[in-house]
Amino acid sequence: MFKSTKGILTTLAITALLMMSASAAFAQTTGSVTMTATVSNFVELTSGGAVTLTGNSGGSIITDGTANSPLAVVVNLGELGPSNTNSFVKLSVPVRLRSNVAYQLNMVSSVAGAGATSFSLKDTDVGFGLTPAARPANLAAGVDTNATPGDPTVGGSTDANGRWVFAGANSTLGAYAVSGQVLTGPRINQAVAANSATSLTVPAIFAIKPQFFDPAPAITITAQFTVVAL
Amino acid sequence: MPRLSQVITKSSLLTALLVVSAFSCLGQSTTGTVTMSATVSKFVEINSGGAVTLSGNSGGGVTTDGVTNSPLAVSINLGELGPSNTNNFVSAQVPLKLRSNAAYVLSMTATVTSSGSTASRIGAADVGFGLGTISRTGLGVNAGADTNATSGDPTLAANGSVNGTTGRYEFTAVRSNLNAFSSATTALSGPIIMNAVPRSNTNGLTVPAFFAVKPQFFENGTTTISVTFTVTAP
Question: How large is the ipTM?
Answer without folding.
Answer: 0.86
